Amino acid sequence: MDPKSPFRCYDRRYVIEIIVIALALVGLAFVGRQFERGSGARIAMALLQAACFALLVARSLLPIRKLDELQQRIHLIAIAVSFGLTGIAVTASGYLVRAGMVIPPPGLWVWALMVGAWGIGVLVLARRYR
What digits encode the pLDDT tens for the residues 13-32? Predict the structure, then answer.
């Protein structure tokens, strides 16, 4: 990978770990569906999924420590912009749902928006600092 890439802290090992965590999330979802809603086993599966997701988020953010100060600043600004855009989108969506204009979007759209905005923000900011 290009040594100047703002994503250079994400190596092959990272990708493999994220794939394993994602497969664990899917597996836990399938196992959890075997149990009745509200049962202890299904709640335990949900807690394991939450722990896996927390690990996925931490595993995505921690490698940023390996970057130099400028690259860290780029990621920080991109995360801040992503946070703001996601907050605006969630709030607007809530207003539109209450007004009856749209159906409630699935919860994971928030993460997809946030990660996408972060990635685009990093690319735009990295280009700005070249």
Answer: 888 999 999 999 999 999 99
pLDDT digits (tens, 9 = 90+) for 119-128: 999 999 998 8
Please state, in angstroms and rounded to a whole number, the distance separating the CA atoms of residues 97 and 102. 5
Domain that holds residue 87: 68-130
The residue among 25, 47, 66 that closes a domain is 66
Q: Are 103 and 97 in contact (CB under 8 A)?
A: yes
Rounded Cα–Cα distance for residues 115 and 60 (Å): 10
Tokens representing 6 are 């703002």
19 and 77 together in one domain: no
Tokens representing residue 71 in the block: 């690259």
Q: CB within 8 A of 93, min separation 6: which ones?
A: 102, 104, 105
pTM of the entire predicted model: 0.77
- If we measure between CA atoms, which residue out of 72, 85, 74 comes closest to residue 117? 85
